What we know:
By secondary structure, this protein is an alpha/beta fold. Helices cover 38% and strands 16% of the residues. The protein has one domain (4-294): Alpha-Beta Barrel (TIM Barrel). The chain contains eleven helices and 13 strands. Helix 2 crosses helix 3, helix 4 crosses helix 6 (136-150) and helix 7 (190-199) crosses helix 8 (211-227). It starts with a strand and ends with a helix.
Amino acid sequence: MGRCGINIFGIDGILGGLPGVLDAARRADEADVAFLLHTDHVVMGSRTDRYPFGRFPVPPEYPWYEPLTVLAAMAATTARIRLGTAVLIAPLRPATFLAKQAATLDVLSDGRLDLGLGAGWQEEEFTSSSISYEGRFDLLDDTAAACRALWQEGPVALSTPSFSFDELWCHPLPVQAGGPPLWFGGPATGRNARRIATYGVGWLPVSNLSPADLAAAVAGLRQVFADAGRDPAELKVRAGLPLARDDEKRPLLGPTLAQADQFLEAGATEVIVGLGAFVRSAEDLDEALGAIGQA
């Protein structure tokens, strides 16, 4: 298995919509790219200036395809590449339905699903669905707990502040024992660090960190794992590679990939490349994916 995967955000406009995106997934599979990540918004309001991680990269009318639907289509046309979300806004989905969707996708992909979860940042997504924005972190925890419970042999029971159930079966069970690995976005501190150690296998930093900052965050997370009685060596981290640019600010793929060793030495277990920065047409795709697959 390789160490470098891709986030496909933004390539739909370059490659002619969903057909082009699905073709890119097939080519990434053939090029030995390790994993493919899809991001999520259910609806988008006008106040993208409230985005807490810098300048929001697209206008409100950008087409946010539903991730699990798209990954299901990709699962049917790929054989090896792992398929994941980075991140799915879990509190916007009913927990039992999300568990069913993810289990079905894990079966369809023959155990290749990685479920990256987050709490979201946009209040309108929650208020438009009559879901508490302020309570989204509690709901994220309870949804993760529900998925982990429902991916076991039934009957299962769970009681949380958000919902309870008893004597339930949720079949088919996922192919992966215990269900798809759960990854979490957000900071690697406080409640989120404990969430990762309680429910997850890994961390998805929301923004690109320097190797030094990543190393400090990973050290802290490993300590939280140890405090929770887990082996710190179990922690997985998928870190985004910052873009290397030429003098005219154009992204350079080779120098971007050359940074991978620094991030792996700092504690990342895999690295992520934003594919859209390096693909301007379908003709660029094979060359870019080949380099990423070999990195």
